[in-house]
Design brief:
The complex is a heterotrimer of chains A (about 90), B (about 350) and C (about 60).
Chain A (H helix, E strand, L loop, with lengths): L1 E3 L23 E6 L5 H16 L2 E7 L8 H7 L4 E4 L4
Parallel strand pairs in A: 2-3, 2-4
Chain B lengths: L6 E3 L5 H10 L13 H8 L9 E5 L4 E4 H11 L6 H11 L6 H6 L5 E8 H5 L14 H16 L22 E3 L10 H4 L6 E8 L3 E4 L6 H12 L14 E5 L1 H9 L4 H11 L1 E3 H7 L7 H4 L6 E3 L7 E5 L6 E6 L7 E4 L11
Parallel strand pairs in B: 4-5, 8-11
Antiparallel strand pairs in B: 2-3, 4-6, 6-13, 7-12, 8-12, 9-10
Helix pairs in contact in B: 2-3, 3-4, 3-7, 9-11
Chain C lengths: L1 E2 L3 H10 L9 E2 L8 H20 L3
Parallel strand pairs in C: 1-2
Classes of the chains: A alpha/beta (about 90), B alpha+beta (about 350), C mainly alpha (about 60).
């Protein structure tokens, strides 16, 4: 017998992945802290070490509420950086 | 109208076969399902009329497109009757409202589930239980509509545990969470009208925890009854503690509601009283939550001041639910979400104006 | 960045949002309730895999 699938179509996807940045020297590293406990510490330390290793600079540090999308002005400032570190979940 | 939905072939029409066939694809809620055959889905669609391919909402995180037909398919799976369709369509519209923040609701590690409250005429005509045992079990309309809404979240929104839903423990309210307002015994009129949604029928979605009970068997004084509610609200463990902008739904049983109304208290009076009484020591909250979402004025409080558990009385919503007895409940919010109340559209018939 | 307990969830969510293959580095779970030295250690050990993913050498 035939039955319907229950999931339906998926809406269009609005984004694609950015290409990698082969050389980080002179580039800007951004941080988007999702406000979860220790996220800022982890991301900050990683960005510092990445910068020290490659000659990049930690230029933009932003914070967002974990439960909400990042506001447009935060995203606009992060767009100045070539690479951004952020966290997902707890 | 072209039918755009995908079909699949199953070996037999028994519910267990369908459940297993769906489970392989990551569908279903673990319980047996009613097969969504074209005949059943067409009969379900007749319950709300309109164009089956009309897009009611796109639901995150999957960006799944909830058409009337997709809603009807999930309603069949859950065991709904056609008269529940208009409620489900309204519920999906409500969930998609931006203030609900469904993306966050579905994604969080908290055990939040959207509570669906059915208001007005449709609660009576479609058989929803607003009285004794309203939160369940035992009523087809409440159980199947609540379940259908969860199936839509699983299938269409992609809120699958471990994929779109990170809830640490999950929760029983994530199976079915639907109740009707006891309008006949609400001394202050219907909740929907109190938030500016007029019309014969409406639904509210409030993304919160499972109900937290409070009882007062002895008093007929509003303050004594509501002090119990306040003590349940002022809990260090609920998400409202660090998120002061969040709403509480206080589901008053008819006897508690009648006692408050007899003393002349309005919804506004009760919300103000609860706002005043549901407080915790500011220093205890500060110590417990380094990460907190308080309004700027709240940060100025000294450690020994009593901090209201929610920043404004408007965040305390009062709905009458239940039957005889003196048990009421508080439904704390997940936090970063607001409830939404939307009208239930009357059934649309071919060739008639909506 | 994700912790090991949420790595699969992070990739599922990224794919659901139309970004399969999102660059994710996992560190040991949990972060909440973990002392500063242990978090710094997790960060230090994540630098190399992050560098490989960001520069496309992974």
């Amino acid at each position: 017998m035939k039955v319907y699938a229950p999931d339906g179509a998926v809406g269009p996807s609005a984004a694609s992945l950015a290409p990698p940045v082969p050389v980080l020297a002179g580039k800007r590293i951004g941080i988007l802290d999702n406000s979860k406990p220790n996220a800022g510490l982890l991301l900050g330390r990683m960005a510092e070490r990445l910068a020290a290793r490659t000659g990049a600079g930690v230029e933009v540090v932003e914070r967002k509420n974990a439960a909400l999308p990042a506001p447009d002005d935060v995203l606009a400032r992060l767009a100045e950086a070539e690479v951004v570190l952020t966290g997902s979940a707890d | 109208m072209t039918d755009l939905s995908e079909m699949l072939e199953v070996a037999s029409d028994d519910p267990e076969t369908l459940r297993d066939c769906f489970a392989v694809r990551g569908w279903g809620d673990g319980l047996p399902l009613v097969p969504p055959t074209p005949e059943r889905v067409d009969a379900m669609l007749a319950g709300c009329g309109g164009d089956p391919e009309e897009v009611v909402a796109a639901l995150p995180p999957r960006s799944g497109i909830a058409t009337r037909r997709i809603i009807a398919i999930n309603a069949v799976l859950a065991g709904c009757r056609p008269e529940h369709m208009s409620v489900l369509v309204a519920a999906v519209r409500a969930l998609a409202r931006p203030e609900v923040n469904l993306r966050g609701v579905n994604a969080t590690t908290h055990p939040v589930a959207p509570l669906l409250v059915v208001h007005g005429e449709v609660a009576r005509t479609a058989g929803y239980n607003s009285g004794l045992g309203a939160f369940g079990p035992g009523n087809l309309a409440n159980a199947s509509t609540g379940r259908a809404l969860r199936l839509i979240l699983l299938h269409v929104a992609g809120a699958v545990p471990g994929a779109g839903d990170a809830s640490t423990q999950g929760g029983p309210a994530k199976y079915a969470y639907c109740v009707a307002e006891n309008l006949a015994e609400s001394p202050w009129g219907g909740y929907a009208a109190s938030v500016g949604v007029d019309g014969p029928s409406a639904v509210t979605v409030h993304c919160g925890e499972a109900p937290h009970n409070f009882h007062d068997m002895e008093s007929d004084q509003p303050a004594a009854i509501l002090d119990k509610a306040a003590s349940v609200m002022a809990s260090l463990g609920s998400n409202n503690a660090p998120v002061s902008g969040a709403e509480f739904f206080v589901m008053l049983c008819p006897e508690h509601a009648a006692a408050c109304a007899a003393a002349g208290w309005t919804r506004g009076n009760m919300a103000s009283y609860l706002h005043e009484r549901a407080r915790m020591r500011t220093g205890d909250l500060r110590e417990a939550f380094a990460l907190r979402a308080w309004a700027p004025w709240q940060e100025t409080f000294g450690d020994d001041a009593g901090m209201p558990i929610t920043e404004h009385p408007d965040n305390i919503r009062i709905v009458v639910v239940g039957g005889p007895g003196k048990h009421s409940s508080v439904i704390p919010s997940w936090g970063m979400t607001r409830s939404a109340t939307v009208p239930v559209e009357p059934e649309r018939r071919e060739g008639t104006e909506p | 960045m994700a912790t090991t307990a949420f790595e699969a969830l992070a990739s599922e969510v990224a794919a659901t949002l139309g970004l399969p293959g999102t660059r994710i580095v996992a560190v040991e779970h949990p972060l909440g309730g973990t002392d500063e030295a242990a978090v710094v250690d997790r960060a230090d050990r994540a630098v190399e895999p992050a560098l490989l993913l960001l520069t496309g050498s992974a």
